[in-house]
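Quick one: structure for this chain?
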Amino acid sequence: MIKGNPKQGLVGATLGFFIGFAAVSLFGPTAQKFKEAMGLTPVMVGFLVAMPSLSGSLLRIPFAAWVDSSGGRKPFLTLLSISILGMLGLTALIFTRYPDGLTRGLYPLLLLLGVLSGCGIATFSVGIGQVSYWFPRSRQGSALGAYGGIGNIAPGLFSLLIPLALTRLGLASSYLIWLLFLIGGTLLYYFIGLNAWYFQLREQGKDPEEAKRLAAQLGQEIFPSGRLQDSLLLSARIWKTWVLVALYFTTFGGFLALTSWFPTYWKSYFAQEAVAPGFLTALFSILASLVRVAGGKIADRLGGERTTAYALAILLIGALVMSFSHTFYLSVLAAVTMAVGIGVGNAAIFKLVPQEVPQAVGGASGWIGGLGAFGGFVFPPILGAIVRAMGASGYAAGFGLFAVLAALSLGLVQLLKRARAAETVLAKAAPEGGS
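Got it. Here's what it folds into:
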């Protein structure tokens, strides 16, 4: 009656996340098509490419809570099904209205369909919980690293594939293929995605204690303890949680935002045509994803604070160069530098969670993952507003936003270091005071 093993659980969760996370690139590679057809301003383009990240970030928190009671399959399938509805509506809209009938009056509908399609992005927090319950503590680092690293490749890969499809098939057929991929991937997850043994036993009618005992005999170590809602409330009262939210807002929010904004940047600022913007965006996105896997190992060796500080410094350098660069190859090098800083930072910040908020790790992770990803929605409209205010030069100047955020985040890391040093001094002094 019990199905699967940890490896199969990891494969299923990674597949589900990979399918849903591709929606980060929903509009980025095709933004120019919509801009030309609908006469969109830079700010409107910014909101368009950012819209999938709105639902993809905010839904992470409630759906992470659902995992603790369901195991992950139901949240996964719900999010992916809503994403299918959004893609279905988007594909139908393009087939029936593009290009001549796609007017500005349909812009709100386009944003709504982007929100629905972006629900799949929220599968990140669902998969984190599903994988965590499958693996013992000694193997969770490598399992979650593989899950996050492989799943994060999806936006970069789609940023590369969509422009290729556009040149050969056109806009409507490209989105139709994406819709079929999403449906096929969701069906595949339905058949291979598995909850950990404890949740399978609970579905079979076993009471919590018996299910826990039987699952422990099979090798499961981690079980739901308390309600995530309580952990969310507790972690919200701890100031360090919000420092980590701000740090992740800069790094992971920056990753989401730039993955959706870079196609517009490369095409509009450097007049790159055809597949070049998609290739350059894929370079950034895939590199940041792969570096994230290595970033976890670096954080294990150097510590979360030091690694985060180094990552933010690299991000700061890359963003400064981007904001002043008017040379194509220098900008490519700077984008690669930003990818390294962002990728390492994304891994190192979650290394800090159990260190800084040990009394509410689950709740803190929910706030950090959900609100941190909200940067993917906030940044593109700001970048668009800078372009509107400054003209073409604003495409470069906009990266100053990330330089400022990186500098502020470095200050927050120093705040964490000083607080931990003070806590260490107090902890050492406590026994002496008590004696």
